[in-house]
Amino acid sequence: MEKEAKTSFSFASVAVSFFILIVLPLTITGIIISKGVIKVGEEATQANLRILDDNQKQSIAGRAQNVADAVAQFLSDREKDIRIASILPRDEQSYVTFLKSNTRGVVESSSAGIVKVPLSVYREIAFLDKSGKEALKVTVDGAVPAERLKDMSNPANGDYGNEDYFLKAKALAPGEFYLGPVVGRHVSRQEFEAGKRFEGIMRMAAPVFDSGGFAGVVELALDFRHVMEFTDHIVPTEYGMVFAKVNPDDMNYTFLVGRDGTMLAHPAQYLLGGVGPDGNPVPVLDDKNYNDLVKTGGGVMNVLNMGFLDENLPKIHALASSGKSGSFTYTVDNRRIFIAYAHIPFYGSIYTRPEGFGWVGMTVDIDRYHKLSEDKVREIQLKVERWQKSSIVVVFVSLILLFVIALILARGLYRSIQKRDGKAPMGNYDD
Q1: Looking at residues 24-31, what average pLDDT do you find?
Q2: In the predicted model, what is the mean pLDDT of residues 107-126?
Q3: Residue 281 is assigned to a structural domain of this protein
Q4: Are residues 37 and 145 in the same domain?
Q5: DSSP string of 18-69, one letter each residue
Q6: CA-based, 20 to 30 A from 237: which of 285, 368, 414, 415?
Q7: What share of the chain is helix, strand, coil (3-state, %, to 5)?
Q8: Tally of domains within the chain
């Protein structure tokens, strides 16, 4: 009886040893993993359960001003370019070199995903003689044949309706320049949803003088996508730049307004001004045509006409046009809206003080922002619960398997010990 007790004790000791060495560590590891999943879930929940507090509002307002200052600096640099262009040799090679030497990166979608690609700052450079006839014109695609050169003494010959940049520049004194409004072809809502994007330009022009006096005008077509790039990839509540498409329906985006109230950059690009297929400017949205045009995306936005939807927009424009920057939190249609606005301090050509070039706006639908945050939190909590249940099942099954393996290994090891000691293993430990 004593021998059997010793034998049973010896087997139990081996089995317990295997349990301690194999099963117990997995149990502890499982507990740690489970607690870790819960902790990560709690941290993720706190990170996503965000509110638009005063500090964040101030941060957004400061960010809007930084963007506005960057736009102003970009335009100031273009002023230097038009001065350089006015003294360039008037030959094709010099103009080609000028275009190629002025490039900046822009974000585009490709088969490789979202990438930043180089894009010429200017779409064309041209010299117009003293009568207004284009004598030399080079685009990003090369030199324009003589038969396609235009007489811009007649503004109706412009690519985008009436364009009077030659007449404006001709009247300037040496050293002065003209920077016109944004012009381009309007993109309808249907075209925008099909993938088409607005590709407007701004005409820059300066008079050229030689020993005989006025010799003509040099013209640059600034690709406005470079200006839009400053605002198109910014979501006010997110850090850094967002390289995916910004959803205007979220009411959490950045936009750009011109000095006359026209929308110059907006995630819904069918709201941007331009000429239609007939060459005439697309109508501006107002209280009379809004319901009809907004459905088709056939109208463009001017904040001065949007008072019937949001009376604060014309007020904000008036403040920004006086050179001020700031922010507003208000309620419209039972929605709490936050808007930060920042004056763009560029004063050149027609963009005189105090209006400057316009202003940058950052808007957040506070209630929608909270709802999206809460939805994200619920999504995280569900994932955490699934991860926790899965880890418990995996650990439980692993414990059972390892417990069985431990018993088998313990029994085999015990038999080996019995044989080494010259003892026959017992066939049944219950006997």
Answers
A1: 64
A2: 83
A3: yes
A4: no
A5: HIIIIIHHHHHHHHHHHHHHHHHHHHHHHHHS----HHHHHHHHHHHHHHHH
A6: 285
A7: 45, 25, 30
A8: 2
Q: Report if residue 1 sits inside a domain.
A: no
The pLDDT value given to residue 24: 62
CB 221 within 8 A of CB 95: no
Tokens of 186: 């309007």
Look at residue 431 and tell me if it is in a domain. no
291-300 contact pairs (CB < 8 A, 24+): 296/188, 296/189, 296/190, 297/188, 297/189, 297/190, 297/192, 297/268, 297/270, 297/271, 298/188, 298/189, 299/271, 300/186, 300/262, 300/263, 300/271, 300/272, 300/273, 300/274
- Residues 253 and 267 reside in one and the same domain: yes
pLDDT at res. 246: 87
Q: What does the pLDDT look like over 191-219, one tens digit per residue? A: 999 989 999 999 999 999 998 899 999 99
Residues 177 and 117 in one domain: yes
User: Is residue 230, in this structure, part of any structural domain at all?
Assistant: yes
| pTM, 2 dp | 0.77
Residue 8, pLDDT > 50, answer: no
Same domain? 347 vs 399: no
Rounded to 5°, angle at Cα 344 from 72 and 342: 135
The pLDDT assigned to 228 comes to 97
Tokens of 387: 């991860």
Q: How confident is the model at residue 48 (pLDDT cuts 50, 70, 90)?
A: very low
If asked whether residues 390 and 370 sit together in one domain, one would say no
Question: Is 11:410 a contact under the CB 8 Å cutoff?
Answer: yes
Same domain, 280 and 408: no
B/e letters for 167-177, b = 16+ CB within 10 Å, e = fewer, are bbbbebeeeeb
Q: Find the domain containing 314 and state its range.
A: 54-375
Instruction: Using alpha carbons, list the distances in angstroms from residue 168 to 83, 219, 341.
Output: 16, 11, 31
| Average pLDDT in the chain | 84
pLDDT value at position 387? 66
Residue 334 confidence (pLDDT): 85
230 and 321 in a single domain? The answer is: yes
Question: Which residues, other chains included, contact 186 with Cβ-Cβ below 8 Å and sequence gap of 6+?
Answer: 198, 270, 272, 273, 274, 275, 276, 282, 300
Query: Residue 420: its pLDDT value, please?
Result: 63
Q: What is the DSSP string of 296-330?
A: HT--B-BGGG-TTT-THHHHHHHHHHTT--EEEEE
Same domain, 370 and 416: no
